[in-house]
Amino acid sequence: MRKLRALWIRFTGLLRPRRTDDEFSQELDSHIGMHVDEALRSGLSPDEARRRALIQLGGVEQVRQAQRERTSLPWIENLVRDLRYAVRRLAKHPAVTAIAILSIGLGIGANATIFSMVNRFVLRPAPMGNPTTLLALHTTHDGDRCCNSFSWPLYTDVRDQARSFAGVAAYYELIPASIGGPGEPERVWGQGVTANFFDVTELHMVLGRGFTPSEESAPSVVLGENLWRRRFDSDPALVGKSVHISGRNFTVVGIAPPSFHGADQILYTEFWVPIGNIGTLVPTVPDQKSRQFHFVDVLARLAPGVSPTRASVELKGIARRLASAYPDTDKGSTIVFEQAGSLPSNVRGPVILFFTALTVVVLLVLAIAGANVANLLFAQAALRQRDMAIRLAMGATRARLRRQMLMESVLLGLGGGATGVLLSLWSTNILSAMRLPAPVPIDVRIDEDWRVLAFAFALSVVSGVVLGVAPAWAASHPRLANSLKGEDALARPGRPLSLRNILIVVQIAMSVVLLSLTGLFLRSLGSAATIDIGFRPQGLLKMSVDPRVHGYTAERTAQFFGQIRQRVAALPGVDAVACTDVALLSDGNRSDAFSVAANPGSGPAPVDADLYMVTPGFFDVMGIPRLSGSDFGDEKSAAINTAVVSQSFAERVLGQKNPLGQRITGGGTTYEIIGVVGNVKSRSLGEDIRPVLYRSLNQSIAADPSLMGYTLLVHTSRNPASLEQSVRREIHVLDPAMAIYGEETMEEHVRTAYFLPRLAATLFGVFGFIGLLLAAVGLYGVMSYAVSRRTREIGIRMALGARPGLVERLVVRQGMVLAIIAMVIGWPAAWMLSRLASSFLYGIQPHDSLTFTIVPLFLAGVALVACWLPARRAASIDPVQALRTE
Q1: What counts of helices (H) and strands (E) characterise the chain?
Q2: Whether 782 contacts 815, CB under 8 Å
Q3: What is its main location (predicted)?
């Protein structure tokens, strides 16, 4: 209690210093007066009596200082005093302060931007209750890569047998649908979930509830908050009412929170229906009794007190029992898990590698910026040598001086951090606007949460401390005799490499690495732009519809597309119209393994090929050259299945045989080849040419309806975007309730296919430009400082007859030596680190000779300019004025 009372007295004294001092002054005056009265009574004069009273007290100021230390917190007072001093010092040099804050801000902004991406796609847990105990379960088979979905019987086995879990739920990943409501029908995507899904995920609804056990097959729906707000104007009375989803009535039982779009954080789904009722929304639902069809994903909540290790052991035991009981389907399979919401295993490796490369780059940017700021602080420390020497001579401690300078650098770091967060907010908004070329809804929005802010704050403080330590130490250890005379102790003659020069060498070396990586990605983007995609995107409008979700039969769907093609073809300016299931370069489509029908088991190994359903005229509309044979005609569903194949397909499946008339088998269907067309980029720009088989839409639509809907392609010699409203009207004339989605020109669609090379080139280009600018400014600053410190020497040289050209060469040579040393160090490092980029380059190798030749030459040119400007100023020095400089 006594210690707490003393601490309270100190704290109140800190908050009310003036009142405390006034009270103590009154008490001190009273005490002195008592001693004076006592001395007067002993016969002393008033002056002598007061003098003896003060001697007996030990000095008024000393007593007051001792009292302040007893009744306050001196270290906080000193800290506040140092803070005020640091603010005054920084405000006294606004230009230097602004440059330092901007430099640090650029570095921290780059790091915060990349950390926001890492946080969004790697670190952030799924937006569900207690995500650390929520696991995503997968199956994997011996010799296969992870991970696969569950069959329904396997899910029920795990749900019923596992004791390590408090609950096990399953969901069907994607359900395309059309939702009604106010306005035009809209294409949305949802999921089918078990009735206990929202209980296992511990998701709290905005309104209503999740599903009850009795609703496993009921026509009930939970809507996402964004869909509820967008389509139904946030109507709180919607719960309990019916909404139209794909032409069927579903009763709304709850509204999910806005942050929740499914367990997979990449997909963007907006409604959830009981999994027992997905047969009304999905064209072909696998047999739930079969162990062969793996179509559901599984989530499990660890039971209280159960460790992941124990759960893993139990799952392996269950897998062994099931393999013994069902050897035909489950032998060689095991069950693994990861934290729910993690990146899918098939993209995790490339994404983490890409983020690793970006992290290296932004750390280089921060290091270059830090070297710039450290050089500024060294310059400031050099200018303050005389001030520091005087303060040390008057009794100041070196620790106090270091603390004051560190306070200045930490304030610069915090200012840079605030600037960096603002830059990061701006850049993440731009990145969030980018679209992926995928036929399914992908959520790539990047936002900044408390983790990003904490990261930026920590990086700001660390940067401020690290950048300020060396200048603070150097400034607090001046050579008193030299400093009192105004000499620069940090740049003494006879030292070929000062601390400032070393920092410049490091800066330029890192810039070599950064610019080399930037050059590789810019060259990659240029190479990607020259890739032959195999079709003509100019003059094409694409627009998608999905008649199936509006209750159309296969026959009626075929009739609908026939009618819409006729109506749109009659529009002014339309040259041709065709339909397909999925547009080329949509990053994925249906594929099957194909072999020659005559010897499917004895011939060469089957070849995987992508499948597209198309209508007659598709190849002419797309500008895909027809090499031989004919196009599709008016095939009837009862006729033999016909196919047009790409040149790559013909070569890899049939070899040297004439493909026309050959029959091939794949996916349980036999096709007769009627034509061969040119190769195209099917899924992505960076892929090797894939074999492609085109089949008749009219023949295939009944047996294999497209889950992604169908795309109408319109060719015109005019601006294709100008036809959008006309085509929409024709579709709605045939069916006013038809949801239309994916409207864009084919050129816009192809541009989205350049997402990865454009993203990489943009990020690396911006960071490379920032690094180059900082390095050039840093070199210019060092050379300007060197010229200013050597003004008297240069004046003497010129007074003795040195020509201006000689002085220019002297200064330029000094700077270029530093640049050459840096390039010798940085070039091999860039050569080795370029392998990080190999997986993301298009058409060039990581050790691209052109890049590694141009970058050093370009950087040498920038360094030459940065050195020449101060050199020209040095050559124009007036010797008379220089000799007067001290």
Answers
A1: 28, 22
A2: yes
A3: membrane
| pLDDT above 50: residue 197 | yes
CA–CA dist 761, 774 (Å, integer): 19
Residue 20 reports pLDDT greater than 60: no
Could you tell me if residue 124 is left (phi over 0), alpha (psi between -120 and 50 degrees) or otherwise beta?
Answer: beta
Helix, strand or coil for residue 855? Answer: helix
Q: How far apart are CA 56 and CA 38, in angstroms?
A: 12
3-state helix/strand/coil string of 735-800:
CCCCCEEEEEEHHHHHHHHCHHHHHHHHHHHHHHHHHHHHHHHHHHHHHHHHHHHCHHHHHHHHHC
Report helix angle 755-789 to 345-383, nearest 10: 10
Dihedral angle, C-alpha 868, 869, 873, 874, nearest 10 °: -30
Mean pLDDT, all residues of the chain: 81
Q: Where is pLDDT greater, at 692 or 448?
A: 692
pLDDT the model gives residue 409 = 84
CA distances 109 to 320, 365, 420, 421, 424, Å, are 51, 10, 4, 6, 5
Q: CA 355, CA 360: separation in Å to the nearest integer?
A: 9
pLDDT for residue 10 is more than 60: no
Please give the residue that has the higher pLDDT: either 394 or 661: 661
CA gap 598, 619 in Å, rounded: 28
Predicted pLDDT of residue 763: 81
By C-alpha distance, which of 500, 491, 493 is closest to 377? 500
The alpha carbon of 41 is separated from its chain's Cα centroid by a whole number of angstroms, namely 85
Give the pLDDT of residue 8. Answer: 47
CB 147 within 8 A of CB 345: yes
Does the predicted model carry a pTM greater than 0.70? yes
pLDDT category at 493 given cuts 50, 70, 90 is very low
Q: How far is CA 395 from the centre of its chain?
A: 52
- Cα–Cα distance measured from residue 814 to residue 825, given in angstroms and rounded to the nearest whole number: 18
Strands 248-256 and 220-224 turn out to be parallel
* Residue entry with tokens 């911006």: 766
What is the mean pLDDT of the segment spanning 521-536? 83
State the residue for tokens 């006294």: 92
Cα dist. 691→134, 593, 600, 658, 699 in Å? Answer: 41, 10, 18, 16, 21
Residue 731 or 85, more confident: 731
